[in-house]
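Tokens as discussed.
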């Protein structure tokens, strides 16, 4: 499956990190768990106090590395301090990195309750049906 045909994820991201993705100062999003499916696009759900889907990005790649290697190789792209990075990956053996290729902010943010199926915000991420993802875009 090519990246273009990949699955769409709804990803919960804190507003301060979403802002950094939108302004280009953070072009790698950090996770602890790698998605099991091939991902092509990520919808950004900003957590409280925003609580809305505010945009999306396409992926360049997803990589799994040790946290120490991830920090050494990509620290300038992560948008977090070393202290924050270490706290996030405390007791983790693997860091999962989502490299942002293109990012777009929606003209109007969307509440999840206004979407078909009235879904709940994902704890980390949620796979979306393509029809739903297209409706949001």
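Sequence:
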């Amino acid at each position: 499956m090519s990246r273009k045909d990949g699955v769409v994820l709804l990803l919960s991201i804190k507003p301060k990190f979403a802002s950094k993705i939108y302004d280009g100062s953070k072009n790698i999003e950090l996770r602890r768990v790698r998605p099991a499916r091939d991902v092509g696009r990520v919808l950004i759900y900003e957590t409280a106090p925003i609580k809305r889907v505010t945009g999306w990005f396409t992926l360049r790649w997803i990589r799994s590395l040790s946290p120490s290697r991830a920090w050494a190789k990509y620290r300038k792209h992560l948008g977090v301090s070393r202290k924050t990075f270490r706290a996030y990956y405390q007791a983790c053996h693997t860091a999962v990195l989502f490299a942002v290729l293109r990012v777009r902010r929606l003209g109007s943010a969307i509440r999840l309750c206004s979407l078909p199926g009235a879904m709940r915000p994902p704890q980390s991420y949620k796979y979306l049906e393509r029809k739903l993802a297209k409706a949001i875009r």
